Amino acid sequence: MSTPGTTALPDGGLKNPGAGLITLDPVHTALLRGLDDLLTGLAARLAAPEVTGPPLLSVDSLARLDFFRNFPHLGVSAGRFTPEALDGLAAGEEPGGLPLTPTGYLLPSATCYGLLLSLEGRDVGEGGLRLSAAGRCFRNETHYDGLRRLWGFHMREVLYLGTKQGAVEHLESGAGFVGELADRLGLALTRATADDPFYDKGGSRARLMALDPVKHEFSAPDGTAIASVNRHRNFFGERLGIRAGSHGPAYSACVAFGVERWVHAMILAHGTPEAALDRVRDAARTRPPA
């Protein structure tokens, strides 16, 4: 029997197009969308309006944020065929052997970068600013592993910019939300300090992080990190000239969710995609008020 709201596929299902790439069937797609809808509950609770970030990020802008010093391996570059290659393409030549030229842009590796860059030079005011966004993110990895580690995936984030205390409260609210939603969904998660800050690993900020961690992850029983709370201090506020009124450079923080990883965790917890989807729909029907 097919799950309500989904359509059965022909025998053999859908073929995945390559390493780190996946096509979700109707049940997995319903599960992904249902989970993302539940994850927007944090934005509703914090009155964070939904925005849509840019699909590409400037290499020069990312360099100013130490992206390449911190994550030199992650960037997925956007290239275009050279003018010399166009005749070959039109003549039916194999595109894999034709030259590409860099565009100066990368595909996003996290949703918050585009939002932060769009606020460069702004004053978010004494009360601060919250934004929510979901986007496709892309990361080169040493290996890929089903829904646990993908080349392209969906990331939802709720971002805060404002005061130091506001950033702390934002992450406390985010961590509380993760715990509450996990309980409603029947997920057993553990919280631990992560080791991939936004800062140069050899610099003073990295040494400070060892004493005062800035990122914590929430992981499923098999070790898959499905959510994180990230305190950026005033790093982005200083680099991008974002102010919080009289408080000076804005502090920022974000709560991030890897949506495909939530799908993985739900199937791990409930045995089948169909059972996981039933649990998500039950949670949606009993969603608490924002």
Automatic annotation (TrEMBL):
Record's signal peptide: none
InterPro entries: aa-tRNA-synth_II, aa-tRNA-synth_II/BPL/LPL
Domain of life: Bacteria
Domain Aminoacyl-transfer RNA synthetases class-II family profile: 129-288
Gene3D superfamilies in the record: Bira Bifunctional Protein, Domain 2
Protein known as: Aminoacyl-transfer RNA synthetases class-II family profile domain-containing protein
